[in-house]
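Entry 14. Structure prediction run on the chain below.
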Amino acid sequence: MTTHGAPTAAAGPLVLADISGYSTFLRDVAYEHRNDAFAGGNVPHAYGVISSLLDGIVQRLVPPFTLSKLEGDAVFVYATDDSAPRGQALLDCIGACYADFRERVGTAHTVWPCACEPCRRIDQLDLKFVLHAGPFVIQSIAGRDELIGPEVVVAHRLLKSRAADAVGQAAFALVTDAASEWLDVPADGGVPVLEECQPSPPVSGRAFALR
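Output returned:
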């Protein structure tokens, strides 16, 4: 990793797991509970459930990947060696993470007493993945290791991809050709996609439905 703040060149897979519908869900919950939430330090139960969902994602992905950081509704992980699963094992890892997410969403109401309309819509939350790969730099900033570089930017821009339209659902894993080559991901079952990532060149890959 980094030494005394010196940047370190690295390369490997970059993985983002992003909760779809997160911002709208918390906004609606905050509005519904505008008279009883946050007053006197009260926090809506929805926030605890979201924390549980993010924690579950981290538990499933780390290891084999290394946690870079949490980014609101997304978990960003990476690998710099051969520890990352490859081929079908990688897809199985993503599938297990998604299955755990759905189970946590499905059981949320058993530990969550609120029955208001926005809170009941937690079932509409879903999970998508972006898998990319390439060179990047690990730089110590304010005491934390941060990943920087063009491929890191591309991975994050792909969160806005049209892969959901390609597979016909919100739950998917978008695997770029760079990630497929790096991790030997089989193409079977994937839908070809081409994404604009200006000012970078278009990125091609395959989208895999997760349900």
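The radius of gyration is 18 Å.
Filed with the rest of this week's runs.
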